[in-house]
Amino acid sequence: MLYKRASQITEEDLVRLVEANATEDERLEFKRQMYELGSEDAREMIRDISSLANQKGGLILIGVEEDDDGAASGVPGIEGAQHDERIVSSAQANIAPRLNGLEVASIPLQNGRAVVAVGIPESLNGPHMTTYHGESVFWQRHGRQKGKMSVDEIEAAFMRRTESTTRVESFLAQRRLHENLELHEGRTVMIQAAPVFLGAELVDILDKEVLGLLRQPPSHPELRGWVCSPGEPRPSLHGLRAEDREEGQLREYLELRREGYLEFGSSLALAYNEPPNTLPSVSVLGLVYSFVHLYRILFERLGVSTPAIFALTILNAQGHRLSVPQRVSSGVARPTRAWEMAHIEVPVVYVQDLHGGAEEVIRRLNDRLWNAFGFDRCWAILEDGSLVLD
Predict the structure, then answer these.
(1) CA distances (Å), 65 to each of 29, 53, 74, 194, 361, in order?
(2) What kind of architecture, by CATH, is found in domain 6-149?
(3) Residue 232's pLDDT is what?
(4) Which of 29, 213, 342, 367 is the most buried (most CB within 10 A)?
(5) 378: nearest Cα among 322, 310, 311
(6) Residue 185: per-residue pLDDT
(7) What pLDDT score was predicted for residue 182?
(8) Residue 93: which residues within 8 A CB-CB, separation 6 or more?
(9) Centroid of chain to Cα 86
(10) Residue 108: other Cβ atoms inside 10 A
(11) Residue 266 and residue 255: Cα distance in Å, rounded?
């Protein structure tokens, strides 16, 4: 199996598939020719895409030849104009509910042709039904073949989606309640992210690129002081963990689990306020930015496109007000009110595909934090995505 996004695949990757005699499976399909415009061929394309979406997502590689056993035997490619827009628009029009996160990319070959890679995500809002020319059928991939889903399989697919979201939200809540209690004595910002379909082992803890990312997470150019970087990541029971301690006291930590769960906690980030009983919105914004983009880059590195859930919590915030940039507080924003409960548990944010949705996740988490203090949105983030920090 080729674990890469459609846009990341190269001709070298395709050649390696042939050399390895890679075979079709429940997440990978080879097509020698492009789907034609005729109704039957287009119907087949819609069925292929939806069947993979109703399994666990996967790839269709158009322009890859296969033998009788379904093994890749050559990469002749296809000729003709770009097909990306036609495939995406057809899928959007003929699959219900709409399949978000579908990615189509043309991979140029040295022979002047191209292979078209169709990346189908593990869907957050499945199962999906084909509606092409009045068809109302749920399809699912079984090994190398697809078939109509039975009533029991459709019901199980709906239950799987509900159970997955419930399970991952429960996991996040348990981590907030029971883990890292050293930090819970004072004000602490805690940020969490996990694949919605949590379970499979995704992370190689010896991967040098993964280790490098945890050592130096991304930061906003204007917020370089606020980055999720507490120290050197080291192997732990569940994956990798980095900590910042002073005289034995835990101040910050970053943990990445093998199944792709990422968590950051810091009492340090909320300790630099000058006014008493205030929460610094700018430092929280910087940490959320760093964390979300760290998660995005990690999963791009892993070549996995899967729905994700993000959570932001401020522990021990009772009696605190939100400290906002001066230009915001003196302009459109009204004075912030004090938080009355023990903690601020920002409602979670789901995203189908973080590749193009990181900024939206950052905005929504910060909007919801600001909503808690009576603002209609995070006024530190302007409509064009720039920040108001002074």
Answers:
(1) 10, 23, 5, 36, 40
(2) 2-Layer Sandwich (3.30)
(3) 95
(4) 29
(5) 322
(6) 66
(7) 59
(8) none
(9) 25
(10) 12
(11) 12
Element (H, E) at 164: helix 151-178
Query: 184 near 315, Cβ under 8 Å?
Result: yes
| Distance from C-alpha of 55 to C-alpha of 257, rounded to nearest angstrom | 24
Provide the terminal-to-terminal Cα distance of the chain, rounded to the nearest Å.
49
| All structural domains of the chain with their residue ranges | 6-149, 160-371
Angle of CA points 371, 377, 379, to nearest 5°? 125
Predicted confidence (pLDDT) per residue in 313-330, tens digit: 998 889 999 988 876 665
CA torsion sign for 61, 67, 73, 75 is: negative
Contacts of 382 (CB under 8 A, 6+ apart): 388
E strand or H helix at 60: strand 58-62
> Which contiguous run of DSSP H or E holds residue 349?
strand 344-351
DSSP annotation string for 187-255: -EEEEEEEESSBTB----TT-HHHHHHHHS----TT-TT--S--S--EE-SSEEEEEEEETTEEEEEEE
Number of H helices, E strands in the chain: 8, 19
| DSSP E strands, 109-182 | 114-120, 129-130, 137-142, 145-148
Specify the length of the chain in residues: 390
Q: State the maximum Cα–Cα separation within the chain, in Å, rounded to a whole number.
A: 72
Place of tokens 């973080």: 354
Lookup: tokens for 73:
């035997």
Integer Cα distance of 24 and 378 in angstroms: 47
**Residue 212 CA to its chain's centroid (Å):** 20
What would the two tokens of residue 193 be? 């992210």
The values of phi and psi at residue 200, to 5°, are: -70, 145
Alpha-carbon distance of 264 to 284, in angstroms, equals 12
pLDDT of 390 reads 64
> Rounded mean pLDDT of 11-15?
93
Whether the CB-CB separation of 239 and 256 falls below 8 Å is answered with yes
Tokens of residue 258, six digits? 């093998």
Both tokens of 377, joined, read: 């949105």
Tokens 């035997």 correspond to: 73
Whole-model pTM: value is 0.85
Let me know: does 25 contact 144? Beta carbons within 8 Å: yes
